[in-house]
Every structure is written in C-alpha cells, then in structure tokens.
Amino acid sequence: MTDTQSPQGLPEPPPIGTSALPPDTFAGHAVVVTGGGTGLGRAIASEFARLGAAIVIASRKPEHLEQGVRAIEEIGGQVMAVGCDIREPEQIAAAFAAAEERFGLPATLVNNAAANFPVPAEDMSPNAWRTVVDITLNGTFFMAREFARRHLLAGTSASIINVGASYAWTGGPGFAHSAAAKAGVKNLTETLAVEWAPYGIRVNGLVPGLFPHEDMTADIQGNLARTSDKDECQPALRVGRLRELGWAATYLASPFAAFIAGHTLVVDGANWQRRSLTNPTVVTVRDQMGKGPFVGE
C-alpha cells in the first residue's frame, strides 16, 4: 500500500440469514446455549437454529428466556427455555435432564454466560470479585462437567465451546475479576480438550472482539460512548457483526472442525494484536472511567 491509497478495512460479511455451512448441518441435534436469550448468546443460538439445531436456552432471568425463545421461533427454529443458575450444579443437572427429555442428549454446549462490569481493582468489593469468578469460571466448569459426564456414560461424541475474552492473554485493566476468570476459562478449555478428546468430546474456545449490541450493560455502553468512532479504533475499520460470531461458533461445533480441539478462535479483526509504534500517554483506569481519586471507605 502506498501513502496515496486510502485504507479500506475488512469487507462486510454476507447478509443476515446466510449460512456458512450446508443446510441442516445440525438437524437432529440439540444445542445448549447459556445466556442464549440476549446479545452474543442469542446471535450464536440463532445461527445454530438456522442450520437445523434444536436450541436450549439456559438463563436465570425469565425475561431473557422469553426474548431468546421469541428470537428462535421467529426464524422457524425449535427451542425450549430452562431456568438455570450455572453456579448451582443441582440446577444444571435439572436443566440437562429437561433438555434431554425434550430433544434427546444435546450434542453441543456453548458456555456463553458470564458476569462483567468495569471497576478499578481498588474499588472492587470482595462480593463483586466472587460473583464474577463464580459465574464466569465456576459456572463454565460446572456446565462442562455435567455435559461431559452424560456423554461419557452414553459413549457419544460431543462439542463444547467456551466463550472467552482476549484479555485472558493480555490482562484487562478495569476488569481484573473478569480477566482473571477468562484466563481460567482459556486454561480450562485446553485442559479439558486433552482429557476428553479420547472420548470424542471436543472442547474449544471462542473469543469475540467488539460486537456492539443492545443488551450490553449500561456501564459498558457508557465506556463505548466515550470512544468517538468505534470503527476507526479497529484495524478492520469496522466492528464485528453478530452473525459473524455465530458462524464461527457453528463451524467449531460442526463435523468440518472434527480435528480442532483445545483451540481458542479469536474473532476480532486483529484488534487484540494491535500495537502502536510509539506509546500513547498513559491514562489511568480511574480517569478513563471518569472517577475521582481513590478515597477509601
């Protein structure tokens, strides 16, 4: 590229409703998606449904379950909702039992549910730390364990996709709780992949970049609002489109990725690898969040 050429960024993906895999790739299969009623989880669930999967949406919140069911039904998919707090193994077992009774043993699990909110580490309460780690890391393990145990007993193959975050590698200033938990999820993905591959259970990770959506929490939306132009802040010169994450998830769970295990696929247009030739001025997390000096309790 010469200096006279204008950067174009990465091209737009095919339109909504386009499938990246053959029709009915997941026909006869059920897919459990935690947090599948909103945002990224709903986008992932929708792409599985378009490829013939029956969808099981797991969430603690009835309104999220209703939203997820409505979204899948609108595209003609089969769907059921199960109330489930993924921090509670007994609730997880009950959710899988209900799913199995309706659709048979689910063949794919997408561990999408997580907790997150920006906060300087010195302001973080012990309860905030415990809650985020409990949902994001412990919940992912409890779901994967229950799912795998059922397949081990049945002698059937299966696929697990754990949704992660790029700050599992880099650390996440302002997100110490979530970054630590997601680092655990990445390590867990690699560990379980080795343990369970001999039994036909593949475990992979999926890391989204910036995929703005209406279900983002108010504090995260506030942080984004302080960025003047999200597209120009990405090497791709655009943010992600929700369907692109769904396509990545369906590929990882498909027969076409049968030899991929223990891998974490980052879908962010190269944003997390970006480095500047010169270091920008350091702005503290407190200043970035518009907070005053720390004053203690």
List the helices and strands and how they pair.
Blueprint lengths: L29 E5 L4 H12 L3 E6 L2 H13 L4 E5 L5 H15 L4 E4 L14 H29 L3 E6 L3 H4 L5 H21 L4 E8 L9 H8 L16 H12 L10 E4 L17 H4 L9
Helix pairs in contact: 1-8, 3-4, 4-6
Sum this structure up briefly.
This protein is α/β, with parallel strands linked by helices.
Total individual domains:
1
Mean pLDDT: 92
Helix content: 25-40%
What's the CATH class, please? Alpha Beta
Structural class: alpha/beta
Q: Approximately how much beta-strand content do the residues carry?
A: 5-15%
Measure the end-to-end span. Answer: 55 Å
Model description:
The chain has 297 residues and is α/β, with parallel strands linked by helices. It has a single domain (30-288), classed as 3-Layer(aba) Sandwich (Rossmann fold). It contains nine helices and seven strands; from the N terminus they run βαβαβαβαβααβααβα. The protein has helices at 39-50, 62-74, 89-103, 126-154, 167-170, 176-196, 218-225, 242-253, 285-288, and strands at 30-34, 54-59, 79-83, 108-111, 158-163, 201-208, 264-267. It has a seven-stranded parallel β-sheet, with helices on both faces. Strand 2, helix 2 and strand 3 (79-83) form a beta-alpha-beta unit. Helix 1 (39-50) crosses helix 8 (242-253), helix 3 (89-103) packs across helix 4 (126-154) and helix 4 packs parallel to helix 6 (176-196). The chain is globular. The termini are far apart. The mean pLDDT is 92.
